[in-house]
Design goal:
Length: about 250
């Protein structure tokens, strides 16, 4: 059993892992990297890091290339498509690093696929040490293996670094019983259990990621990235979004 104490609402976290979609970096452009969206996210992370909170990031690559979609629609080999998607997450990670460092934050990109000319290879102890020194760590290239999503990579890395919580940033306020974009009367859940999510097929993260979090007693908070100050609020333990826990 994990020695991690279960995170609680209204309790400030000391080490967090923030999962960003690649689409979050695209902003209103819908594709590629939008400098305004990138800089806004970097400023939010900067604000959240004040007070000694240790922050790690996992970013997807869907704004550049989505492996599963390419495999399904173009007949591309899934493993090759997923490796291309991993390369996209490295590009996003480097963009985040540049934006964060222009704000004065010391940042390291650690990749599950070795690319030592541009970033460090992922080593768990090195990642933890970087965070203890106050550096923002960006985990890139997913798990380094095809057939695994960046949600699963986020859950894995969060467990490995003993994060207090996994924060999943989205475009809506939390987890709903139906798509709130299509159904204005959809109801948002304030709290769910891991088993609720799995048994009811609620789309929080993929089942592998939820299973990893459940096995390691790792809480998940799903919140709205688009509302200014929300990263800082959720790190401070304010009860926003949806909490998924035991």
């Amino acid at each position: 059993m994990s020695s991690r104490r279960a995170a609680e609402p209204n309790k400030r976290y000391s080490r967090v892992l923030l999962k960003l979609s690649g689409e979050a970096l695209a902003g209103n452009e819908g594709y590629g990297i939008d400098s305004l969206a990138l800089d806004r996210i970097a400023r939010e992370v900067q604000e959240a890091s004040k007070g000694g909170v240790q922050i790690a990031l996992v970013v997807g690559g869907g704004n550049i290339f989505r492996g599963l979609q390419a495999a399904a629609s173009h007949g591309m080999d899934r493993a090759i498509a997923d490796h291309m998607g991993m390369m996209a997450t490295i590009m996003n990670g480097l963009a985040l690093q540049d934006s964060l460092e222009r704000l004065g934050l010391s940042t390291r990109v650690l990749s599950a696929i070795e690319m030592q000319q541009v970033c460090e290879p992922y080593v768990r102890r090195r990642a933890v040490r970087h965070m203890e020194k106050g550096r923002v760590v960006v985990f890139a290239a997913g798990t380094g293996n095809p057939y695994f999503t960046t949600d699963t990579a986020a859950a894995l890395r969060a467990a490995e670094i003993h994060a207090d919580v996994l924060l999943k940033a989205t475009k809506v306020n939390g987890v709903y019983d139906r798509d709130p974009v299509k159904h204005p009367d959809a109801t948002m859940f304030e709290r769910l259990t891991y088993k609720d999510v799995i048994q009811r097929g609620i789309k929080v993260m993929d089942t592998t990621a939820i299973g990893l979090c459940m096995d390691n007693h790792l809480p998940i908070v799903v919140f709205n990235l688009l509302e200014h100050g929300n990263i800082q609020r959720v790190v401070a333990g304010e009860p926003i979004g949806t909490l998924v826990t035991e």
